[in-house]
């Protein structure tokens, strides 16, 4: 009997292209849920490149004409799958805090959740897939489907960026290695000091730059420079779009053409104002006479924070907690994430609130990450790459979210907020063991491979989505096939690694 493999396919085409290549190499039945806007959906309704045995359209399942909410079902669902639905819903960027176009009521959120849960249950009970192959979940619905698959014992393969510039990891959970075992013979003692390790590992690309932030900056620079594509996207949306998504997709509620146009103008003006404030008010260098702890901000709307650190999404409050927990003779340095530029920075009031916290110094985003890591005593973060990089500078770190590199003895996960002062105090007394870092490197290399997800996203955005400025676009089969063929070599390693993983899991 053939294996049944399920895919979650949305307006990021990485999994669709992976399924195209996999069908040529393995004998299995493929199934998929599409989560797509209307114009893009048209291609997938008619596509012949991948032979899916059956497909479903996520947005077709959400009906706002339904009046009654089955609260007993939702309550029993949480117990059955051990999934906190409000945990997902409150952290959904569309439902709360970040939606500038529409405010969802509690009843509407209940309605969406009930229909999602029933739909996903019916699909999984009907197909009973052997495997679920996906990229790291971004929104509450794909995270919910992923968690349900795990709860049902379906074998899951998640492809996620490894927070190293061009490395990818396939694992059951994006914050864990599937295999963290390593023998002494696999761990070589190569370096005699952290400065030697940093010089060779971070600066000479032994594992393709652990300085992930530089890759992000490069990605953001290309995106920010695409004024022509921005104008083209605006023209396409305003004059060639019927804007039906605003009626059929809850993610587009409130997005009339006039509302989107006015918001775009507002965002441009806000970005200029915020950038001006940052340039005028934030220091661009560190004070070498101070002992300091470095807090690395995350981008507010990203899955790193919303899904991997769900109880620490209010970063200003988290900074306050850290500031209250550090020894009296230390300063807390806070630096903005370079990718916040793509979200038009935070509000000026947010920056002022951080600046007004006693003993906190908010630094300009241009301050060198290398300088901060070399001169700090401790790094604190939610779930990003800075705490990983800290280990390669011989610095301990404290992390609030779930991360695969917490297997490093020098990375300390905050299980209870009341323990934060104790964790920080003990971490400051710690000496990072060079052999522990080299052992981690061996495990990292064992579990990762060369596939630059950020580079792929940029290619996809440039080819299909006006460099990321418009998602609901018309796609033709020749256009998709050409893109697949042009990037076949890039995808070959991702395909091979998934096949290797399928074989390992099947043999267990």
Describe the structure.
The two termini are 18 Å apart. This protein is globular. It has 21 helices and 13 strands. The protein has 508 residues and is an alpha/beta fold. The chain folds into 2 domains: 191 residues, 3-Layer(aba) Sandwich (Rossmann fold), CATH 3.40.50; 263 residues, Rossmann fold (3-Layer(aba) Sandwich), CATH 3.40.50.2000. The chain has a 7-stranded mixed β-sheet with strand order 3-2-1-4-5-6-13, sandwiched between helices. A 6-stranded parallel β-sheet has the order 9-8-7-10-11-12, with helices on both faces. Strand 8, helix 14 and strand 9 form a beta-alpha-beta unit.
Largest sheet entry:
7 strands, mixed
Spans with pLDDT under 50 lasting ≥5 residues?
203-209
Architecture (CATH level 2) name of the largest domain: 3-Layer(aba) Sandwich
Q: How many distinct beta strands?
A: 13
Count of individual helical segments: 21
Broad shape: globular
The portion of residues forming beta strands comes to 5-15%
CATH topology of the largest domain: Rossmann fold
Average the pLDDT over all residues and give the rounded result. Answer: 91
Strand order of the largest sheet: 3-2-1-4-5-6-13
Termini gap: 18 Å
What level of helicity do the residues show? 40-55%
Topology readout:
Blueprint: E1 3-10, H1 14-22, E2 28-35, H2 38-46, E3 52-57, H3 71-81, H4 85-90, H5 106-127, E4 131-135, H6 140-151, E5 155-161, E6 167-171, H7 194-202, H8 212-224, H9 227-240, H10 245-248, H11 257-281, E7 292-296, H12 303-306, H13 315-325, E8 331-335, H14 348-355, E9 360-363, H15 369-375, E10 378-381, H16 386-391, E11 397-399, E12 411-413, H17 420-428, H18 434-447, E13 448-450, H19 453-464, H20 477-486, H21 488-507
Parallel strand pairs: 1-2, 1-4, 2-3, 4-5, 7-8, 7-10, 8-9, 10-11, 11-12
Antiparallel strand pairs: 5-6, 6-13
Helix pairs in contact: 1-21, 3-5, 5-6, 13-17
